[in-house]
Design brief:
CATH architecture of the domain at 35-116: Sandwich
Radius of gyration: 25 Å
CATH superfamily of the domain at 35-116: Immunoglobulins
Strand content: over 45%
Strand order of the largest sheet: 1-3-6-5-4-7-8-2
Order of helices and strands: HEEEEEEEE
Largest sheet: 8 strands, mixed
Structural class: alpha+beta
Distance between the termini: 110 Å
Oligomer: single chain
Number of strands: 8
Helix content: 10-25%
Shape: rod-shaped
Length: 126
């Protein structure tokens, strides 16, 4: 009886250890890497604001966008590779990094958006 039980016990312990190891590895690895690949447009006029299309990877409905040095943007989840973010009128002219965040992870695209001053339109002087 002992000769039969020992190999079965070793096989069971080995199988359980393998399952535990694979479960730990899977839990430690993020399901999808959060990242930004591009932003359109890359320039907006301060007085108008506008909508940014943010493309990347790993987005969820919990992902939020922010202009570093300005603040959070109203963010709409489109799918795992696209977000829309509203830049309100009045953001000070500058070049901003764009950051997306969810839970405890974030990704930043340096110099992603330039907020420009409106160019005056030449007109008739009366």
């Amino acid at each position: 009886m002992r000769k039969t039980v020992l190999p079965l016990t070793v096989a069971l312990v080995t199988t359980l250890a393998t399952i535990l190891l694979l479960t730990t590895i899977a839990a430690a690895r993020p399901l999808s890497q959060l990242g930004i690949t591009s932003v359109e447009p890359d320039t907006l006029v301060s007085e108008n604001g506008g909508t940014l299309s943010i493309y990347g990877t790993g987005f969820t409905s919990a992902t939020v966008a922010r202009l570093v040095g300005y603040g959070l943007l109203d963010t709409t989840y489109v799918n795992s590779t696209a977000l829309l973010a509203t830049v309100p009128p009045g953001v000070p002219p500058d070049t901003y990094d764009l950051q997306v965040s969810q839970d405890t992870i974030s990704a930043t695209l340096p110099s992603a958006l330039t907020i420009a001053v409106a160019t005056p339109t030449p007109g008739r002087v009366v």
